[in-house]
Write a structure and sequence with these properties.
It comes from Micromonospora sicca. This is DUF2306 domain-containing protein. Keywords: Membrane, Transmembrane, Transmembrane helix. There is one protein chain. By secondary structure, this protein is an all-alpha fold. Helices cover about 80% and strands about 0% of the residues. It is built from five helices and no strands. It starts with a helix and ends in an 11-residue tail after the last helix. About 25% of the residues are buried.
Length: about 160
């Protein structure tokens, strides 16, 4: 069972890491972005569930993997919800900012897991992806918000 979980985890992690950049660079409309995004979502589910399975086999050593798995799954489900529902707010484009932040967080989790594996759990590997990724997400969110048309408020008094 351990070997099967490791294979699923490695295949899912590799797929997610390979797809992250093409998805981020693809035009944000139906087509390439959504097709690759669906494959990425399957990989993220596989990664998260296999992480939880591996944790169940060795909880004392793999608690960090379980935390990343749960967070990744939560961010993924939230990001997909915003993409599917597209709730209003922020000029009708607020859903894009939420989707961007949540899905960007899944990418940070993929990179963090990869870095931790490469460095055998080095503290920098646990923190650097979040530090760098958060700045990149904040910059992209600011650009997205700048594109959002401002609402004009008409006063009844004037």
């Amino acid at each position: 069972m351990h070997t099967v979980l490791v294979l699923i985890h490695a295949a899912s992690g590799t797929t997610g890491l390979l797809l992250a950049l093409p998805i981020l660079l693809a035009p944000k409309r139906r087509g390439r972005h959504t097709l690759l995004g669906r494959i990425y979502a399957v990989a993220a589910v596989g990664l998260s569930l296999s992480a939880l399975g591996l944790f169940a086999l060795d909880p004392a050593r793999l608690w960090g993997l379980a935390i990343l798995g749960v967070l990744t799954l939560g961010w993924l489900l939230g990001g997909l919800w915003f993409a599917r529902r597209r709730p209003g707010g922020l000029g009708g484009r607020g859903w894009r900012v939420w989707h961007l932040n949540l899905m960007g967080s899944t990418v940070i989790a993929f990179v963090t897991g990869f870095a931790v594996q490469l460095t055998d759990g080095n503290l920098v590997a646990w923190t650097a992806p979040t530090a760098v990724g958060s700045v990149l997400i904040a910059r992209r969110s600011a650009r997205e918000l700048a594109r959002t048309p401002r609402r004009v408020v008409v006063s009844a008094a004037g």
